[in-house]
Amino acid sequence: MEMEQxxxxxxxxxxxxxxxxxxxxxxxQRYGVFYLMMAPALIVLLINNYVPMIGGLIAFKNMTYxxxxxxxxxxxxxxxxxxxxxxxxxRATHG
Length: 95
Fold this sequence. Notes:
- By secondary structure, the chain is mainly α.
- The chain contains five helices and no strands.
- The protein has helices spanning 2-17, 25-50, 53-58, 70-76, 81-94.
């Protein structure tokens, strides 16, 4: 009989003690400094690793410089990827 009473009283105490974690202002006060410390490293990572990938895309585009905007020219230029890959495969098979 005592075991049943202990089990019934202990269970609600555990449920009440459990807290739900939420993103609130206390979180940013505690960890905001670490995000500020990470920001320069992420900016350097972005510049050194992802910006040069644009050059790899430009290599497979037939760039036409009709408008003054680089992004407009890049968007409107046709892809040459299949022509370039076809030429490379012909050279590889025929020497």
